[in-house]
Amino acid sequence: MKVARMLTALIVCAVAVSLSSAADKKPSGKNPPASKAKPPKNNNHQLSKAQQAKLNQLKAKIKAQDNHLVAHLAAAYAILKAADPIYNGHRGKAVHEIHAAIGHLEAEMKAGKQPYIKHTTDVPRVISHSLVNSSRENLIAIHHHLNSMGKTPHRVKAHQHVVAAVDQLNKALVFAKFAEANALK
Fold first, then answer.
1. In Å, what is the CA distance from 59 to each residue of 3, 66, 157?
2. Cα separations (Å) of 27 from 21, 24, 31, 41, 98?
3. pLDDT of 40-49, one tens digit each?
4. How far is CA 85 from CA 13, 43, 50, in A?
């Protein structure tokens, strides 16, 4: 929230400066005496050095936060990729959602999108269920972290993908329990 407030304050300052410079440019109907003529104002609506430094600092903070989120999403992605694909497609859908969330955050950071990793090895079902549950818990923590941060268009889209991934993992775990119950009969 602090980041969003600071960004809003900077935008308001920039608009106020541009409006005040536009008001100074209006013709008054009288020509000022030549001796009191003011030099023309710079009207390119640029921020002062202090404002630009503050804006750059804010952008760096947002990029660092997004980089932190991408690292956690990548960890959840790697854990989930190690699980077996035995969840009626829900694990795969969650993997795609996580990959999309990473892509949105990396787009905001202007980083290249990471390649999609194929599933290579199978693990025992008990370990697979543990991996899926661990990834689900990580995504829930990331979901809460995203809720507490300032909203940007890419973060909103990433948040939607994280919520969809958690939903798919919940369905995957329900399917696994159902499949195990039917296998015991």
1. 9, 11, 19
2. 13, 8, 9, 14, 57
3. 455 456 778 8
4. 53, 60, 53
Give the Cα separation of 133 and 118 in Å (integer).
20
Domain boundaries, the chain: 66-184
State residue 132 phi and psi, 5-degree precision: -65, -45
Give the pTM: 0.62
DSSP calls for 123-136: --HHHHHHHHHHHH
Instruction: Write the Ramachandran bin of 149: left for phi over 0, alpha for psi from -120 to 50, otherwise beta.
Output: beta
User: What is the reported pLDDT for 141?
Assistant: 92
Q: How far is CA 72 from CA 2, 79, 82, in A?
A: 22, 11, 16
- The alpha carbon of 131 is separated from its chain's Cα centroid by a whole number of angstroms, namely 24
Angstrom distance (rounded) from CA 63 to CA 56: 10
Give the span between the Cα atoms of 141 and 138, in whole angstroms.
5
CA-wise closest residue to 146 among 104, 180, 111 = 104
Q: Are 154 and 8 in contact (CB under 8 A)?
A: no
